[in-house]
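FAQ

Q: What does a record look like?
A: Structure on top, sequence underneath. For example:
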């Protein structure tokens, strides 16, 4: 049986190259010409390998989650909720300010300016962000159950807060904020979080003045 023609490019390398293009220009901003030129293939080869631009973007999102954004999966394995929060924010700073990659976050910026024709792509990115919040929420719920967080802590609110700061880091990085500047911002945000092992002290009644 005759074998088919071998691919004229490495698919894994093509996905990595497409990741950089989508990350830099967003989903709509990255044209097929941009992608084929960067990868070094013809449009027909791209369709033959991936099926469509959207299907290629799905592969890029998988790669991004397995590499650049893996700090989230690692963070939720840490022993305390405070460690988790710190690792998410520090990881976001490192990932969004790397000198060898576009600044910002593909998941945050990838489809912000998409038209209605690409609502499916925007929804896909929103689902990834929801999934990350769910992962954090479950981790904080376990922290409540174990006593690492107080019984009155709200895992949903804390997860939303952590994600909001994480996304804000990406926006600032995209706008030109540097790594040291963003780490200083994280220092400030962490200082505003009361550690679980430091319960809030109840208010003390005012003492009458001595005569």
């Amino acid at each position: 049986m005759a074998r088919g023609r071998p691919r004229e490019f490495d698919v894994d390398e093509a996905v990595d190259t497409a990741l950089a293009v989508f990350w830099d220009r967003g989903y709509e901003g990255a044209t097929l010409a941009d992608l084929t030129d960067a990868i070094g293939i013809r449009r027909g080869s791209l369709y033959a390998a991936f099926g469509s631009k959207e299907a290629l973007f799905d592969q890029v999102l998988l790669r991004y989650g397995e590499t650049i954004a893996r700090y989230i999966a690692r963070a939720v394995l840490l022993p305390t909720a405070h460690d988790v929060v710190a690792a998410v924010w520090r990881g976001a700073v490192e990932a969004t300010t790397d000198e060898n990659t576009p600044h910002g976050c593909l998941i945050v910026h990838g489809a912000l300016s998409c038209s209605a024709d690409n609502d499916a792509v925007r929804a896909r990115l929103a689902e990834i962000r929801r999934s990350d919040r769910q992962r954090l929420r479950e981790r904080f719920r376990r922290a409540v159950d174990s006593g690492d967080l107080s019984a009155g802590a709200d895992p949903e609110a804390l997860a939303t807060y952590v994600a909001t700061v994480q996304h804000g880091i990406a926006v600032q990085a995209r706008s030109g904020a540097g790594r040291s500047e963003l780490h200083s911002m994280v220092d400030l945000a962490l200082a505003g979080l009361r550690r679980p092992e430091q319960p809030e002290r109840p208010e003390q009644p005012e003492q009458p003045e001595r005569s």
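Q: Is there anything notable about this one?
A: The chain has ten helices and no strands.
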